[in-house]
Specification:
With 224 residues, this protein is of the alpha/beta class. Helices cover 35% and strands 25% of the residues. The protein has one domain: P-loop containing nucleotide triphosphate hydrolases (Rossmann fold, 3-Layer(aba) Sandwich).
């Protein structure tokens, strides 16, 4: 099986800080991997470079064998809306939009018809246990509910890879574990790969594969 996402020789520096100092990684469809490591080790930078939010200084990322670095900013932006889904620590939902509009946003921004987008959003919201809350706005949801809306938003357009940066960071332990369960189940159904940055060991332990980052490199001695 070919990797859905592959990185070769990723280097990213900020002044004299080597945020990424040569990272190689292969991610296959359906893979679930946790990226762990101390604060400042390069986890978020890796997620941003893998997902085309940030260009690498050197090296490249390949989506289905195609070099992402050859795309211009518009092409990378298109990729983020179609091939990738994102879950951030604090949801980052749009306060003025309802839960279903938030969840439908990647499809709406890609120009998909409104009803088709909202149908997909309602389907996932229902599957994630939010039936009946579709027309609430983020301010009318609990932290755990809002994070489920963010998961639905990451899934509606059926991305190939879902990136999550500290997705449980703002949740209590139990809600965080429940969020992982629904995220992993939903991703499994669509065969999306999941890349989760976390410094919570109990969250990382839910992933079959753990990648430890130290000083911008994948730590040796850790099976990846
Ligand atoms: P982590 O997510 O593991 O905490 P980051 O990827 O955010 O680490 O950061 C890796 C290193 O790169 C840190 O030393 C951080 O200070 C530095 N860094 C990250 N982003 C920037 C930036 N935009 N400007 C300058 N330095 C940055
Ligand atoms: Mg970080």
């Amino acid at each position: 099986m070919n990797p859905v996402l592959a990185a070769r020789g990723l280097i990213k520096t900020y002044g004299d800080v080597h945020a990424l100092a040569g990272v190689d990684i292969d991610i296959h469809p359906g893979d679930v991997l946790a990226v762990v490591g101390p604060s400042g080790s390069g986890k978020t930078t890796l997620l941003h470079v893998l997902s085309g939010i940030l260009p690498a200084d050197r090296g490249d990322v390949f989506l289905d064998g195609r070099a992402v670095g050859e795309l211009n900013e518009a092409g990378r932006s298109e990729l983020r809306r179609t091939a990738f889904g994102f879950v951030f620590q604090s949801g980052m939902l749009v306060a003025e939009l309802t839960a279903e509009e938030n969840a439908a946003l990647p499809m709406l921004l890609s120009g998909k018809p409104r009803e088709e987008s909202l149908d997909a959003a309602r389907m996932w919201l229902g599957r994630l246990g939010l039936r009946g809350l579709q027309t609430r706005r983020p301010g009318e949801l609990s932290g755990g509910q809002a994070q489920r809306v963010a998961i639905a938003r990451a899934l509606t357009h059926r991305p190939r890879v879902i990136f999550a940066d500290e997705p449980t960071g703002a949740l209590d332990t139990r809600t965080g574990q429940e969020m992982m369960t629904v995220l992993l189940e939903a991703a499994g159904e669509t065969n999306a790969a999941v890349v989760i940055v976390t410094h919570d060991k109990a969250i990382a332990d839910r992933a079959p594969r753990i990648v430890e980052i130290q000083d911008g490199r994948i730590a040796t001695g850790v099976a990846v």
